[in-house]
Amino acid sequence: MSGLASGLAPHIESLLVVKHALGLPYTCSERHLRAFDQMCAEHHPGETALTRQMAAEWAQARPGEHVNGQMRRITPVRQFGKHMARCGAQAHVIAAGIPGKKIRYTPHVFTHDELRALFTAADAIQPSPYGGPRHLVIPALFRTVYCVGLRPGEARRLAAGDADLAAGSLLVRESKGHKDRTVHMSPDLLEYLRGYDRRIAALQPDRAAFFPDRHGRPYSP
Questions:
Q1: Please, are residues 25 and 178 in contact by the beta-carbon 8 Å criterion?
Q2: Are 81 and 55 in contact (CB under 8 A)?
Q3: Distances (CA, A) of 152 to 83, 172, 193, 211
Q4: Sign of dihedral through CA atoms 201, 205, 211, 214?
Q5: Which residues have a Cβ under 8 Å from the Cβ of 114 and sit 6 or more positions away?
């Protein structure tokens, strides 16, 4: 596994092998572990034990960082410490109480005026030589999220083949709990997406994503 540079690299690699073997995407956690590896390589070169100092340096809150984001960053390194300890290596495990309790968000229920303003703005996006087909993608993606109840990431990651526009269904891969599920569209959304698909296919006939960026790939987060 390339890109790891610290003395902890073999242990990080072995944890990633385990997670991937279990069928877990582990994408976000892997990104944090690679950033942790980079920090260790720069600040603690050659150190093969996960020390308290390294763990504390990583766990420290960053300027403007939300506690939930801090928690998402710390959790993989806590898991990594436990993994090293199980393998018999010297590792400090970040305590479970750090950084504190997760803050629960209160969902915002959009008013009709707010929804109208959102879709009006999306529909007003103009073609751009740098934005690819975003003037087609963004209005369709927002409508799909709203009408079908998808999470933004689920809509963003839809592959071109995941949309069955004959049956009126979408295959959502790796949803909550790492399970796939099928959702069905209302007649008006289906009609809209059929028109969208014809227009986007004319621009990108070989696109990989149903809602592609200018290269035909899914948009990044």
A1: yes
A2: yes
A3: 32, 12, 17, 12
A4: negative
A5: none
Pairing of strands 163-164, 181-184: unpaired
* pTM of the predicted model as reported, rounded to 2 decimal places: 0.63
Spatial separation of the C-alpha atoms in residues 130 and 134, rounded to whole Å: 9
Instruction: List CB contacts of 10: < 8 A, sequence separation 6 or more.
Output: none
Helix (H, G, I), strand (E, B) or coil at 6: coil
**Measured torsion, CA atoms of residues 162, 165, 169, 175, in degrees rounded to the nearest 10:** 20
In order along its 221 residues, the chain shows pLDDT tens digits of 568 999 999 999 999 999 988 887 788 899 999 999 999 999 999 999 999 999 999 999 999 998 888 999 999 999 999 999 999 999 999 998 888 777 677 888 999 999 999 999 999 999 988 888 999 999 999 999 999 999 999 999 999 999 999 999 999 987 776 678 999 999 999 999 999 999 999 999 999 999 999 999 999 88
C-alpha pair distances (Å), 143 with each of 149, 166, 186: 10, 19, 11
Residues 36 and 30: their CA atoms lie apart, in Å, by 10
